[in-house]
Every structure is written in C-alpha cells, then in structure tokens.
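Record type: monomer structure entry
Structure origin: computed from sequence
Chain ID: A
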Amino acid sequence: MVKVLVTGAAGFIGFHLSQRLLTRGDKVVGLDNLNDYYDVFLKKDRLSQLQERPGFSFYQLDLADSVAIAELFAEQRFDVVVNLAAQAGVRYSIKNPHAYVNSNLVGFINILEGCRHSGVQHLVFASSSSVYGANTKMPFSVHDNVDHPVSLYAATKKANELMAHSYSHLYGLPTTGLRFFTVYGPWGRPDMALFLFTKAILAKQPIDVFNYGKMRRDFTYIDDIVEGVVRVMDKIPESNIAWSGNTPDPGTSKAAYKIYNIGNNQPVELMRFIQVLEDCLGIKAQKNLLPLQPGDVPVTYADVDDLVKDVGFRPSTPIEVGIQRFVAWYCSYYQKTSTRLTQNSWVKVGSRE
C-alpha cells in the first residue's frame, strides 16, 4: 500500500485521481483549502464522496501555511505527493494576481520543503499547457523552450517547473511536472467553457464565444488525465545521462526530473466543440462572437510522444464521448441539487451545511 498526498483533493482532477488511487488500494490523504474561487458546494459534494471511502483522510489546509504544511509532512510521512492544488484560471490571474503568488508560488515552495525534509520518493505536480505562451511551433513539445508566458497563471506554472528542478538538482528529490491540456468531464470546474456553455444553453441564454469560435483546443477527457497521472506516479524519473549544458533539453535533466504533456493530441475547433454539445443537449446555442481575450492563445496542441514512450499511454477519448458523459452527469447532478433545495435538506445530504 502506497500513502499518497493529493493536494487539491476537492478539486476537479484531484477528486477523480483520489477515486482512482483508492480503487487500486492506495491510502490517500487529501488536502484542500475549499476556497470560494468557484462553487464551494460542488467541492464539498466531491469531498463527501471521497470521505465515504475507506483509506481516505482529509485535511482542510492552505498550502501557503508553512507551519501547518510542515507539520502535516512530518506527521504523515508520504511515499508520493501529487500537487494539484493551485489558483487556477488564466483570465482571473489578470484580475487577482496576488492569489496566484500565494497559492502557486508560496504554496509550492512549502510542498517542496515538505518533500525534501520527509523523504518523499516522488513529487508529481500539475503544470499547464499555458506555459507554451507565445510559442507557435506545433505540436507543443516539452523539449522546446517556454520562456514567453502570456499570463501570470502561466508564469507561475513555469516557475513551478523551475523550482522543482532546483530541488531535484540540489537535494535529489525526484520530480515530474505534468502539462495538462484543457481538461473536461463530469464534476468539472464551473469556470471552464463546457460547464459555462451547458449552463447557459439549458437556460436559453447566449454563450460568449471568443476568437469568433476559431480557437482550437486539445480537449482532454478527465479519465485520460487521471490515467496519465497514475502511470507517471509509478515511474520515478531518472537522470538523462545524455543531457548537455551546451544544448540544454528543457524536458529532461541530469537531475531526476521530467516534464510530460498530457493532452488528447487532436486539437478541435471551438465551434465544433459547441456543435457536439448542442447535439448532446438537443438545443441550439445563441452565440456572442467575441475577439480573443488577453492571456488566451489561439491554439493548443500536445506532443505526447514522451508519454507514450515512457509509460505506454496516449489519451484518446473523443469529444463526442466525453461531452455526452459530462452532459449526463450535469443533468443528473443539478436535478438532484434542485430536489434537495426544494426539500430543504442540505444538512441531511452532508454537503451543503
């Protein structure tokens, strides 16, 4: 049995990953601060499912609390840490930059220090496809330089990669960074496009379609993300003996450090994504066509060759399947929520106190 710390356990990816790890028999310690960046009730509903399962324990802590995090690491002695907790959102980083510094930078150094001082065998951490920023060479490769972020969120994720590498180099801590590409699926984040679109279309309200619908995204279904994370967790990175400072490879190192893309490797135009959603809902969307927003990029496209080579996995869920599963979950979840509201039974449910 492996003891795994999953930070952001009440979040979208953290919830699904924790479920998967518990199913395979790992002991999971979940950490989340349950902040109100989006619907706390949704986070609590995810968490309530995890708390029903044997092998799961939960700590409501903020990563920026250095004393509490140090005490947690000293007490629990984790084998593996998967850091998914972060202040998310490209557009929100323009409005509230300090939240990103506190969570994504201060919080991450506390994770690194906890791992360093407690003998953690492997730190896996969430980076983001947003680090590719102004890059235009497609598909995005982990072996390409990514020094031109176009949002503060992206800059903090790139900083996480650099911070992790320094700890791998200085202290021999094996670290693996995962650049996720536009994750979607059941229990998804309400600030993401699929959730926003579904809610608006069902309410017969218009949806905002940026870049006039010509954006292309490597939409990646949540089960594929989790499969990639689990496989990478089980593969501790090794030194790349061929690494050279004359021609430095950003994706590997002489230290025990590695970066992977986890993306569907098949970019889809936003208009096609909306069309599939309309088909699943049986409703045509009213569209507000708008220009590209600051901090957004027109295309994301993952090169996943390293993921395939090293852990034998390639994400492959088509949007026709993934969107249908999301719609089924959304309708079921909010139908139940509506029923609970009508019956005024939040406390009985255990997730809306």
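Annotation 1: The radius of gyration is 20 Å.
Annotation 2: The longest strand covers residues 122-128.
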